[in-house]
Amino acid sequence: REKRLTLPPSEITLL
Amino acid sequence: TGSPVPVPTATVVRVVKNANTLGIAIEGGANTRQPLPRIVTIQKGGSAHNCGQLKVGQVILEVNGISLRGREHKDAAWIIAEAFKTKEKDHIDFLVVEPG
Fold this sequence. Notes:
The complex is a heterodimer of chains A (15) and B (100).
Chain A: E1 12-14
Chain B: E1 11-16, E2 24-27, E3 38-42, H1 47-51, E4 59-63, E5 66-67, H2 73-85, E6 91-97
Antiparallel strand pairs in B: 1-6, 2-3, 4-5, 4-6
């Protein structure tokens, strides 16, 4: 089984 | 013949603090799909918009010479916020790159 690296999406910050 | 191969070149953009807000939104940071912060919004009337050189889609590599590599989203956002808040400088230097 292929192992995929999945990273979470980022939050967005208003500066 | 053929189209030129775009080479991503990092450029320094100086944003003068001439408005009450910086006026950018960023996403990304270490341990996310976008490992370096990317500009997703530029608000009209903010210092970033007034400067005219920051663009949506640019990735921020450094802030006043501080590398954002390896920093999580909140840390990167904090560094940018502090750079805007400090009265030691009337500007922020962003090292940005337009991803090819």
